[in-house]
Every structure is written in structure tokens, then in C-alpha cells.
Design brief:
The structure holds 2 protein chains of 2 kinds.
Chain A lengths: L1 E4 L3 H6 L1 H13 L3 E3 L9 H6 L2 H15 L4 E4 L2 H20 L5 H6 L6 E3 H8 L12 E4 L3 H6 L5 H7 L5 E3 L14 H4 L1 H16 L5 E4 L2 H13 L5 E4 H6 L8
Parallel strand pairs in A: 1-2, 1-3, 3-4, 5-6, 5-7, 7-8
Helix pairs in contact in A: 11-12
Chain B lengths: L10 H10 L1 H23 L4 H17 L1 H14 L3 E5 L2 H15 L3 E4 L3 H5 L2 H7 L3 E4 L2 H8 L16 H15 L11 H18 L2 E4 L3 E3 L4 E6 L3 H7 L3 E7 L3 E2 L2 H15 L7 E6 L9 E7 L3 H5 L15 H5 L1 H6 L10 H11 L5 H5 L9 H5 L6 H14 L1 E5 L2 E5 L6 H14 L2 H13 L13 H4 L12 H8 L8
Parallel strand pairs in B: 1-10, 2-3, 2-4, 4-7, 5-8, 7-10
Antiparallel strand pairs in B: 5-6, 6-9, 11-12
The chains are: A alpha/beta, B alpha/beta.
Chain lengths: 251, 492
């Protein structure tokens, strides 16, 4: 199976460790991973801020880069939801505006074969025990677009529960938004910060060392709040936990 | 929509105060979390909730698609049942009609059932200007009225107040409006309710004119429906001689049978009750029973303009249950007043900028008052995709475009204050369609990483005021990938 890694622009630029973890994990599970170098950004920030027309060329670029692969895997619930949920909608809107079916036809091939990482592991590879080892107390935050956009359900939790040495503790108010929301974090900074603080306080109350999620953008907001509040907790992407083994444990 | 709160600052500014107010945040958190948990439980009791939700959505969509036909049918049915129908294009017209109708009775006092439509048009203020005093009879509306306050929640207008505050308002203000509060009133719910009961009873028994809204109007029979918890509404609907109902044109359902769906989904979504305690229906007038004169004022006030927008029109499906407010993390922190409208929360954020247009500062800021977490869409009993409409309205704000205002197509220009953002979005789009440029940028960021400031200037300050930034890594992923050829030769 020829699988393309869509790492997302945020991970590529700021969180390369997540990308290395996905490569390590998928390779261990026998998947042939490719990273198309021409990939950039799915256009979510543009689309969600109201710049749909600026997002369209990015969506087209995405389709050009990834169209030929059998599957596209991304360690981001929100970028995965962008492709799966919002690309079809962009096509529909273009049609409604009298611009024909071209955009919809261009985007259609990538929509059904784009998977968020945990979804790909559980649904496509059919594994929940990925042979990981991570001897830490962890709490899991299901990010909004993964939870409600893609409907990841308990897949991430099942994967974490199978990790050797990992103690999973429930996060109070887990399904409440952390307050990141892309440009929302800048446009409504006070509300965003208040939401982030509540999320971090809830995480602290679990006594976990690590808060784990499947989206680095949310983790950037939560982690930045954690260090500012001097909690001593760490934000870690789920890929890094699943990639960690006894031979090569993640720190 | 009237300018109830026009002149309000933009949402972020209004929210800042609320975020800093610990009492308010405590009140809101307690109330929303309580209702939220109860709603979730009430919904799981119904095995066919998903089907009910879909049915509600379809009934509303069908009605809106044929609204012209159903409105005419409703007018015929109401008239045949002895009522009089009036059409109001906007708030001013509606207020004039109601004021005239009250004056014709010779009365200078009216009792009111809690109604969003009359708040939307600021009817109480309009009546006051004509020398008519309107008494709110819903407990929460009474608290808001006595406290010279504004409602902050669709269902629980005084949600921002706690019991101690309510006791103070009753003790201080009731004597101004009628029967004073008992001496030594405490903040126990029973005592507060009894004080309100005694105060209101005098009003019910004296009033000759009642004013209401309606949750639903049945086109086939001309029946209006009010659902409520306290029974005060039923007093207003049945005791006065004249009843005037002001209702938004989108509140129609075609048949009695359609009510079956909403009388299940509305109470469970709003108060987490299996069935609301009081369901009152009235059809025109009946000799010797209830009001002898009935007027229905059908209110447009931006609704047909909203109906013309193919993405935004789904907001008109709203049955005002307020489930979206109770789950919204932004509403929970910002409070209802920050939305600058009688419609706060997620539904307000999509309804107000459509009914009023995006011309004012507050209306242009409302589509951004959301992290797009999607909790509102998930709980909505008529499946309004609120995040979709928010993004659609953001597009209207930053890019302009064609909209319908007062029945005419007009082309909106992009709102002011977005020029820098627009330039940044264009630049980012250019970089993202030129992978080489992106890579150059990433490398530059990596090389200069030791010199990056910990706090950001300009718009970035909004981030670094409360959150640390992650350090830029020494090497972006794509460089690592190329250097190690995909890690296939064992390099890590």
C-alpha cells in the first residue's frame, strides 16, 4: 500500500517530531510511507476565517499533490476534517455560484481516502495494539474537529489503552473545546485564554504528567497555557506515544 | 431587527469584561453545566431522537420553502376563527400596530407573556413612549425588568443573576411596580417565588390587555401555541379581554400533526423536561371563554431577507430552545450581553448579523465569536449547522458579496478593518501554492530561532499575553525527510 503522509503546515514547521513519529510508527507496522515534498497546507485557516476563495487554490494544490496515492494519512483531526468535510462543501458552493463542477471534480478523488492517523490505524490497518511502550500517566483530550467533525469516537482511547506501561486517566470536561479555534485564538483572545485555562486546570486535576491529543494546533494552545501557568504538565501528540517502544522510548 | 443594543462595542471587547467578572462566570458556569447535563440525559431517553431531529429539520425546511403559501393559509384560518391579522415589515411598523391596538382599548397597562419577538422589536420601550406600561410576568423576565437589566439568555433571561442578587432586586424594586416584596425576604427559592406570585397576581387580575408571542402557529387551523413552565403565560392568554400576539413569520408549521415532533424536541432540548408543564393553544376567539378580541401581528423584520440566503436561511429553522447556548464554551465565558442582541450564543451569532445586517461593529464581529467547535450543531434539535453559517458570514464580512436587504439585492463591500488580515491571507495562499517559498520561509525561521522574541508584537500580542509560543525547531520536517530520504536508510 502506497501511503502519503500529509503532515500539515503546522507540524512540518513547528512539530517535526510528530512527523518523525508517524513515519516510525507506520514503517514499524509495515506501511510504505511517502512524503510528497510539494505538499503545503490544506487551506483550513483561510476557509474558516472567511477567505474561501483564497482556500480554493490550496485545496486544488492538495489534490494535485496527493491525488495519485491510495491513502493519505494525517496526524491532525482538523486538517483531516477540512479535506473530508469541507472540500466537498467547497465544491458544492462553487457549483451553486455557477462555476460548474470543475472544483468538485478536482477535489473528489482525495476526499474518501484521507484519514486521520488513529482512524487509519484502527479502520484501515485494523490494529489497536501498535506495540508501543510509554510508562507515563496520560490524559486524553479529544479535539473538536476529530471528535465531532470526523467522528473519531473511542479509536484514540482504544489505541492508548493498548500501550504498555501507559496509565490512562479520564479528563473532566474532555469534550469541551480548549479554546484554540485557529484565528479565534487571536480575534477573541480573552475568551480563548479563559477556555484554555479551564482545560489546563481540568487536566491538572487528573494528576497526569502528559496531556495527549491528535492535533498539534490545539496542543500548541494548551501547551503554551500550561507553561505560562507553570503546571509541570506536558502536551504530547498521540503519534509520539504510539511510536514510542521499549527499545526506543520517547522522552 | 431593532437596535436594542446597537452602539454596542464589538464582541471581543464586550466579552473581555464578562471574562474578568468572577461572579458572572460562576453563575453562568453553574447554570449552563446543570442544564447541559440534564438535557443530555433527557435526550438519551428518546430512542428515535435522530429521526425526530431530522423530521423537525425537514418540516421547517418545507415550511420555509413554501412560506408564502402557508402565511396566506394562516391568515385565512385566523380570520375565519374570529381573529384579526396584521402584517409588520419591521420593528417600527409592529410597534405602531400594537400601540394603536392597545390605545383603542382605552387601557394604559398590559401584561406580557415572555416573548422573544417583542423583545426583538423593543415593544416595551415603544409602549412606554406612548404612555402604556407593560408588565413582564415570566419570573425571569420580571427579574430582568425590575433590575433595569437586559436579558442574557433565550430561555433563562436572568441566568446571569444568582439568588442573592434576585432577592436584592425584589426587595428594592417591587414597590415601584406594584405590590412590594415581603419584609425580611430571604434568598430561598420558595420565598422568592412566593413574592413574585403575590406581586404578579394583582397584575393578572387587573389587566384588560395581554400581549404574547408564540412558539408555533398552525397554518391549517390558525392556532397559536405557547409552551412554558410556570403557567403565568396561560394567565396572560386567558384572563384579559384583548389578546395581541406578535409572532415572527417563520414560526409556522403546516398542520397540527407537525407539532408532535416539536413538542417532543423543544422541552427536552431547552429545559430537559420530557414535556413542558403548560402547553396553551388558542384559535381566534370563542364566546364566553378567554379574550373576546384577538389580534395577530406577523413580524418580518429581516426574515425574508434571511430566507433569500441559501446558506444562512437554515437559521430560520430555530425553535428558540437555547440548547446551543448551554453547550457553547464561548457563551459560558462571555455571557449573553456580549452578543449585543436578545438572541445571544451561537444562534444569536448567526441570526443577528442576518436579521440586522453586518453593518454595525457588533454585528460584523459576531461571526467570529466562536471557535467552531461544533457542539452547537451537535445539540441543535433542528440540525442547524451553525459553524457552516458562521464561516459563511465571516466570508460576507471579509469579502463582501450579494445579499438581500429589505427585499432588494445589494452588493456589500468588505467590512473595514480586515485589510491587513486579507493581505496576510493572500500572502500565505501564495506561499502555500509555491512549496519552494514555504521551504525558504521555514528555513529562515529555523536559522533565526535563537533570536525569536518570547512575546510578540502587533496582533501576535493577543497570543503571547497569556500563552507561550513553541520554540521553532532546528530543522523542519521536510528537510529531515530529504536529508534522511524518508528515514528508509535507518537514520533518525
Amino acid at each position: 500500500m502506497r501511503v502519503a503522509l500529509f503532515l500539515t503546515c503546522v507540524n512540518d514547521t513547528l512539530y517535526p517530531d510528530t512527523g518523525r513519529a508517524v513515519v516510525k510508527l507506520l514503517t514499524r507496522l509495515g506501511v510504505d510511507v511517502d512524503f510528497p515534498m510539494a505538499q503545503t497546507c490544506c487551506g483550513q485557516a483561510h476557509y474558516n476565517t472567511g477567505y474561501r476563495h483564497e482556500a480554493e487554490p490550496l485545496a486544488r494544490h492538495f489534490s494535485d499533490v496527493f491525488g495519485e496515492y491510495e491513502a493519505i494519512v494525517t496526524p491532525s483531526g482538523s486538517c483531516g476534517a477540512m479535506v473530508r468535510e469541507l472540500y466537498p462543501r467547497m465544491g458544492e458552493r462553487a457549483r451553486a455560484e455557477g462555476r460548474g463542477d470543475t472544483l468538485a471534480a478536482t477535489l473528489a478523488p482525495v476526499v474518501p481516502k484521507t484519514y486521520e492517523l488513529t482512524e487509519f490505524l484502527v479502520d484501515v490497518l485494523g490494529v489497536t495494539d501498535v506495540g508501543a511502550y510509554y510508562p507515563h500517566k496520560v490524559t486524553y483530550h479529544p479535539t473538536c474537529h476529530g471528535l465531532r467533525g470526523l467522528g473519531l469516537g473511542d479509536r484514540p482511547r482504544r489505541l492508548l489503552q493498548a500501550v504498555k506501561g501507559l496509565e490512562l486517566v479520564e479528563l473532566p470536561g474532555a469534550d469541551e473545546c480548549c479554546g484554540f479555534g485557529g484565528t479565534f485564538a487571536l480575534k477573541n483572545a480573552d475568551v480563548s485564554a479563559a477556555m484554555g485555562t479551564d482545560k489546563v486546570r481540568n487536566a491538572e486535576s487528573t494528576g497526569a504528567e502528559v496531556l495527549c491529543a491528535a492535533d498539534n494546533s490545539c496542543l500548541m494552545h494548551i501547551g503554551g497555557t500550561m507553561t505560562r501557568l507553570r503546571t509541570g504538565m506536558r502536551p504530547v501528540h498521540i503519534a509520539e506515544i504510539l511510536a514510542s517502544t521499549e527499545e526506543e522510548p520517547a522522552v | 431587527m431593532s437596535g436594542t443594543f446597537v452602539g454596542m462595542p464589538a464582541f471581543p471587547e464586550a466579552a473581555r469584561e464578562a471574562v474578568a467578572n468572577k461572579t458572572l462566570r460562576g453563575n453562568l458556569r453553574h447554570a449552563t453545566h446543570t442544564i447541559r447535563a440534564k438535557r443530555a440525559k433527557a435526550v438519551t431517553e428518546v430512542s428515535d431522537w435522530a429521526e425526530l431531529r431530522e423530521a423537525g429539520k425537514r418540516i421547517k425546511d418545507h415550511t420555509l420553502r413554501h412560506l408564502d403559501r402557508y402565511l396566506v393559509q394562516l391568515e385565512e384560518s385566523v380570520t375565519a376563527a374570529g381573529g384579526v391579522v396584521h402584517w409588520a415589515a419591521d420593528a417600527t411598523e409592529a410597534n405602531e400596530i400594537v400601540s394603536q391596538l392597545v390605545k383603542m382599548t382605552g387601557e394604559s397597562e398590559v401584561v406580557k407573556v415572555k416573548s422573544m419577538a417583542t423583545q426583538e422589536i423593543r415593544l416595551n420601550e415603544a409602549l412606554e413612549a406612548e404612555g402604556i406600561r407593560a408588565y413582564e410576568t415570566d419570573l425571569a423576565e420580571l427579574i430582568v425588568q425590575l433590575g433595569k437589566d437586559r436579558p442574557s439568555h433565550i430561555l433563562v433571561p436572568a441566568i446571569h443573576r444568582n439568588r442573592g442578587e434576585i432577592r436584592d432586586i425584589f426587595s428594592r424594586e417591587m414597590s415601584e411596580w406594584g405590590r412590594p416584596a415581603p419584609e425580611g425576604l430571604t434568598d430561598t427559592p420558595a420565598e422568592l417565588a412566593e413574592a413574585a406570585r403575590l406581586h404578579l397576581r394583582e397584575k393578572f387580575l387587573r389587566a384588560k390587555v395581554g400581549i404574547s408571542g408564540a412558539n408555533f402557529m398552525v397554518a391549517e387551523t390558525g392556532t397559536l401555541v405557547v409552551v412554558e413552565s410556570e403557567g403565568n403565560g396561560r394567565m396572560c392568554l386567558t384572563l384579559p379581554e384583548t389578546l395581541i400576539s406578535v409572532v415572527g413569520i417563520e414560526k409556522i408549521v403546516p398542520t397540527w400533526r407537525d407539532l408532535e415532533v416539536f413538542l417532543q424536541t423543544l422541552p427536552r432540548s431547552s429545559t430537559a423536561e420530557r414535556m413542558n408543564p403548560y402547553t396553551s393553544t388558542w384559535t381566534g376567539t370563542t364566546d364566553g371563554d378567554g379574550p373576546s378580541t384577538f389580534h395577530l401581528v406577523l413580524l418580518d423584520n429581516g426574515r425574508t431577507d434571511t430566507l433569500a440566503d441559501e446558506v444562512g436561511r437554515q437559521a430560520l429553522r430555530c425553535i428558540r430552545c437555547s440548547a446551543c447556548l448551554n453547550v457553547c464554551p464561548v457563551y459560558e465565558r462571555a455571557g449573553g450581553h456580549a452578543y449585543g442582541s436578545v438572541y445571544p450564543g451561537p444562534i444569536g451569532a448567526i441570526l443577528s448579523p442576518q436579521l440586522r445586517g453586518t453593518g454595525s461593529e457588533i454585528d460584523a464581529s459576531l461571526p467570529y465569536a466562536s471557535s467552531l467547535c461544533g457542539a452547537c450543531y451537535e445539540v441543535c434539535p433542528v440540525a442547524i449547522d451553525i459553524p457552516e453559517v458562521l464561516v459563511h458570514l465571516r466570508e460576507r464580512v471579509v469579502q463582501g458579496g450579494e445579499v438581500t436587504r429589505e427585499g432588494n439585492k445589494v452588493v456589500l463591500r468588505p467590512a473595514k478593518g480586515h485589510a491587513a488580515e486579507r493581505a496576510a491571507m493572500r500572502a500565505a495562499r501564495w506561499a502555500f501554492t509555491h512549496p519552494g517559498a514555504l521551504r525558504t520561509g521555514q528555513r529562515a525561521a529555523s536559522r533565526t530561532r535563537r533570536f525569536h522574541p518570547r512575546t510578540l508584537p502587533g496582533p501576535g500580542k493577543a497570543w503571547s499575553g497569556t500563552r507561550d509560543l513553541p520554540p521553532v525547531p532546528a530543522e523542519p520536517f521536510r528537510d529531515w525527510w530529504q536529508r534522511t530520504r524518508g528515514g528508509k536508510d535507518g537514520a533518525r
